[in-house]
Structure formats: structure tokens, C-alpha cells
């Protein structure tokens, strides 16, 4: 069987749609090491069969995927690699959604509309009538560990007197 011909770094880079600098970077990160390095000249050679991996790296980097995550995708079998790409993209979408909200808030703030109702998404929903018990105090954060259990101790008997079930009482008193 005939051995596969090696492509010089320039030819491989052109066919992979990568720069030679990018190939050297991917070698340093262990993503796409050359198949042969000439010991005298240091010239790098790649097998043509590696073009698929190189092009996959190009596409993953097109998603702005960090090199460490690109390496994980390359090392994983097909279904796991697909799961890694999906997980990465879910993270990107969550980050973009958070950035979109921040940009909207900053726009409102910079326009001087802070405090206007446009700053918040307001939704209405129907809930059954219910008794709500509250206790207000002006305390410092350091006082909270003592105040919360004491307040629950005062509110729980009032809630029970107004028909709160023991399940409600026990869940509220254990949320310390």
C-alpha cells in the first residue's frame, strides 16, 4: 500500500483555509501537530487526510470556541463531540441573552429613563386570594441570622391560627 504524500505547511494551510501562523499555534496547543518536521530545516509537513480536522478547527473557531474546548471536541467521538458543541452554543446563547439585557438596561440608564416602567418587563397573572403575613424591621446583615428564626417563630403561630397547614409551617421554619 502506498504511503500518503505529505503537504508542506504552505500548501496545507491554503487547502485548510488557515494561515501558517494558525497551524503553528494549533501545533503548540496539541490540536493539529504536523505529521513530520524536517530535523534540519524545521519545515513542517502534514498528511492530506488531516485536512478534515483542520477544517473542523476552522469552523469551531468560527463559533469563537476557545482552543481548549476545540481540543475536547476533536478528541471526542462523534455523538460526544456533537454534545460538546451543543453545550458550548447553549452557553453562548445564555451569555448573549444576558448581554442583551445589560445593553437594554444601560441604554435606559444613559437616556435618563431609569426608574421608568420601560426598564422592567412587567407581567400580570391571576392568583387565588391568600393571607400574607409580614414582619418588618430595620436590621443590619449581621443581625439576620438571629432575626430570621425569631421572626419565623412569631409568624408561624399566627399563620397556623389562620389555617396554614403543618406542611407549610414546617417548610417555612426549615428554610433558615
TrEMBL record:
Pfam families: MerR_1. InterPro entries: DNA-bd_dom_put_sf, MerR-type_HTH_dom, MerR_fam. Residues 6-76 form the HTH merR-type domain. Keywords: DNA-binding. SMART domains: HTH_MERR. This is MerR family transcriptional regulator. It comes from Streptomyces caledonius. The lineage of its organism: Bacteria, Bacillati, Actinomycetota, Actinomycetes, Kitasatosporales.
Amino acid at each position: 500500500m502506498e504511503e500518503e504524500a505529505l503537504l508542506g505547511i504552505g500548501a496545507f494551510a491554503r487547502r485548510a483555509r488557515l494561515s501558517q501562523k494558525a497551524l503553528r499555534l494549533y501545533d503548540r496547543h496539541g490540536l493539529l501537530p504536523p505529521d513530520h518536521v524536517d530535523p534540519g530545516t524545521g519545515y513542517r509537513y502534514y498528511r492530506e487526510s488531516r485536512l478534515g480536522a483542520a477544517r473542523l478547527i476552522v469552523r469551531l473557531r468560527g463559533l469563537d470556541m476557545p482552543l481548549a474546548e476545540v481540543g475536547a471536541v476533536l478528541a471526542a467521538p462523534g455523538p460526544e463531540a456533537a454534545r460538546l458543541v451543543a453545550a458550548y452554543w447553549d452557553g453562548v446563547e445564555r451569555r448573549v441573552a444576558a448581554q442583551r439585557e445589560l445593553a437594554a438596561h444601560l441604554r435606559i440608564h444613559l437616556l435618563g429613563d431609569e426608574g421608568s416602567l420601560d426598564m422592567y418587563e412587567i407581567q400580570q397573572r391571576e392568583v387565588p386570594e391568600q393571607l400574607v403575613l409580614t414582619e418588618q424591621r430595620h436590621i443590619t446583615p449581621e443581625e439576620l441570622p438571629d432575626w430570621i428564626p425569631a421572626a419565623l417563630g412569631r409568624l408561624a403561630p399566627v399563620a397556623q391560627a389562620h389555617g396554614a397547614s403543618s406542611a407549610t409551617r414546617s417548610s417555612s421554619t426549615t428554610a433558615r
